[in-house]
Automatic annotation (TrEMBL):
Membrane topology of the entry: Multi-pass membrane protein
Name of one Pfam family that matches: TspO_MBR
Transmembrane segments: 12-36, 48-68, 80-97, 103-121, 133-153
This protein's name: Tryptophan-rich sensory protein
Encoding gene per record: tspO
Organism annotation: Bradyrhizobium diazoefficiens (strain JCM 10833 / BCRC 13528 / IAM 13628 / NBRC 14792 / USDA 110)
One Gene Ontology biological process: tetrapyrrole metabolic process
Gene3D superfamilies (UniProt xref): TspO/MBR protein
Keywords, alphabetical: Membrane, Transmembrane, Transmembrane helix
Length: 154
């Protein structure tokens, strides 16, 4: 199936928004001395793993959003997609800049619920968009446990 130029352009805009926004927030909220000094659980991954994982996730988040957007710009799946993006983008500033592990835990749990909601709702209309969110859900579930463990240890 051949993609029209307009479709490709809108897909690239989604990728630019999501990946670009994620990268900007990531650079603005780089874990510093505060994070390094926190007690972390033994299952905490090395810091270098987060950038490549999130970069790949942001690309699939963008593709899923673009697929849903093509079907309806104001439908429930699109509202859930925008909701997860907003929650995703506020987590890092709350955790790394605000040093509010507790509030960040609430945000990431809401994020996970929104991701699961997106998966469930889109399954009926666009299984590909739904499946694209599966690795995102797994990673955010792990990140939620990690956030919770850091909160308990500190």
């Amino acid at each position: 199936m051949k993609m029209r130029a307009a479709e490709l352009g809108s897909l690239l805009l989604f990728v630019a928004l999501v990946l670009g926004g994620g990268l900007i927030i990531g650079f603005a909220t780089v874990p510093g001395a505060w994070y390094a000094a926190l007690s972390k659980p033994p299952f905490s991954p090395p810091n270098w793993i987060f950038a490549p994982v999130w970069s790949m996730l942001y690309i699939i988040i963008a593709i899923a959003g673009w697929r849903v957007w093509r079907e309806g710009r104001n439908n429930l799946p699109m509202k859930l997609w925008w909701g997860q993006l907003a929650l995703n983008f506020v987590w890092s500033p709350i955790f790394f800049s605000g040093h509010r592990i507790d509030i960040a835990l609430g945000v990431i749990v809401l994020l996970l619920m929104t991701i699961v909601g997106f998966i469930m709702i889109t399954w009926r209309w666009d299984k590909i968009a739904s499946l694209l969110f599966a690795p995102y859900a797994v990673w955010v579930a792990f990140a939620s446990v990690l956030n919770g463990a850091i909160w308990l240890l500190n």
